[in-house]
Amino acid sequence: MTSVLYDAPGPKAKRRNVIFSVIFFVLLALLLWWIWRVMDEKNQLQWSLWKPFTQSQAWTTYLLPGLANTLKAAGLAMVIALPLGAVLGIARMSDHRWVRIPAGAVVEFFRAIPVLLLMLFANEVYVRYTGISSDDRPLYAVVTGLVLYNASVLAEVVRAGILSLPKGQTEAAQAIGLRKTQTMTSILLPQAVTAMLPAIVSQLVVIVKDTALGGVMLNFTELLNSRATLAANYANVIPSFIVVAIIFIILNFILTSFASWLEGWLRRSKRSTGAVVGVEDVTELNAAEIGGTHGTGAGKGGA
Amino acid sequence: MFDFLSNYDDPSLLGAFWVTVQLTVFSAIGSLIWGTLLAAMRVSPVPLMRGFGTAYVNIVRNIPLTVIIVFTSLGLADIFGVTMGAADDFDVKYFRLAVLGLVAYTAAFVCEAIRSGINTVPVGQAEAARAIGLSFSQVLRLVVLPQAFRSVIGPLANVLIALTKNTTVAATIGVAEAALLMKEMIENEAQVLLIGGIFAFGFVVLTLPTGLFLNWLSKRLAVKR
């Protein structure tokens, strides 16, 4: 294979690659053997520690309810954050400075703050100023923190989605006499939403991962929190961590693969303008640019 | 209004943010080293190394950072007896464990940032360099890496900002950084909004200038194509 770094290997390079492969394989095998030995030394390989995961009780009592809460919090956060993000994103592209600048400030502010701070703050506000029962409060606090953070991230995704559309879309809409609002709601937004789908799905991975924070800091009974209860019951800390990690990996891997598939499908499909906000683009959206300079995008209507 | 701050001196407000800064700096250095090694594996001609790099990135990226950090405490420290050279000093031990977890996690993102930077260099650049007779190390040193480094600054800046915010996860194993102090203050003091504002302001101060500077730098150094 050829890459920018090296050419297709000749006989000498092939021999060298084989030697490197062997050395690396030996190192890797040594590492795995060492991990296995340490696990064995600390009695973490005993079947009694792993056995609970082959029985239904560990799953139905601890892991599945935990997973359900993780998904519930993540789903709720996404469903609430999406419209909020759309409003913020569109507001940030407004022609009016008094709309654009506050929206930009809100977006940048919440993106600059760790989501844990938002969760802790929301939790305390609920404790003091609302009558939400202490059973429901962790869920409310986790979802609030996630919504505040992700709405501002999704605002940028929405903005990128609208800006990714060809300029001709806006121009054609103006030519047939649509107003700014009409251009946005009936021409730009529907196409932008399709273009944004991959980015939205991959943002779901971030949300799923962040719910675990609420499990430890706010005692929200999601998957990681259920793991602690399970491990306290079966005394199997290491196996429970490994199983929970695998559940997270599978869940997020499915979401990531779905996002990539969606992106490929959208790029191939002939019905759209071909504009896509990809999986990679979400991280590319810069984390620190106070707004105001982006007002003249595709959302700009007639004077 | 700010009187209550004097009740907290271990750590104080500035002390807690100093721990946050330390966590960020040490994790940034560690993850830059480990992430660069991983990136080197991912772009190497040896299939086994590529496979290992890809597997590491895909596994670590999909595990929540919280799981990794909590595991360093409950798993590595409690079960396997990893003390990070500080068996007696719990503060130092958990600080180092948190750095270890942050490095393991952030390195996957550093690796991807570097790899995408290398991929932005057109193959024609290396082909032209080889055509005029440059050796492998010359191709890397004179043509590919100078271009790759410049396009890596922007993505790496985003990783650094994300890392700064991710250091708050160290609060889950009791490292006395900003988020843990905020939790303590907000539960005990009356001024909820003020405390939230102070800590939010602290993080804005930490992330915004870094972001603006590195973004400016990456635009200035960008290779025009």
From TrEMBL, chain A:
It is a multi-pass membrane protein. Signal peptide: none annotated. CDD domains: TM_PBP2 (cd06261). Keywords: Cell membrane, Membrane, Transmembrane, Transmembrane helix, Transport. Its main location: membrane. The chain crosses the membrane at residues 18-36, 73-91, 103-122, 142-166, 187-208, 237-262. It is found in: Cell membrane. PANTHER family: AMINO ACID ABC TRANSPORTER PERMEASE, MEMBRANE COMPONENT OF AMINO ACID ABC TRANSPORTER. This is Amino acid ABC transporter permease.
Automatic annotation (TrEMBL), chain B:
Keywords: Amino-acid transport, Cell membrane, Membrane, Transmembrane, Transmembrane helix, Transport. Residues 17-216 form the ABC transmembrane type-1 domain. Its main location: membrane. The keyword Cell wall biogenesis/degradation does not apply. PROSITE patterns: ABC_TM1 (PS50928). Pfam families: BPD_transp_1 (PF00528). It comes from the Bacteria. InterPro entries: AA_ABC_transptr_permease_3TM, ArtM/GltK/GlnP/TcyL/YhdX-like, MetI-like, MetI-like_sf. It is a multi-pass membrane protein. Gene3D superfamilies: MetI-like. It is found in: Cell membrane. The chain crosses the membrane at residues 15-41, 62-82, 94-114, 192-217. Belongs to the binding-protein-dependent transport system permease family. HisMQ subfamily. This is Amino acid ABC transporter permease.
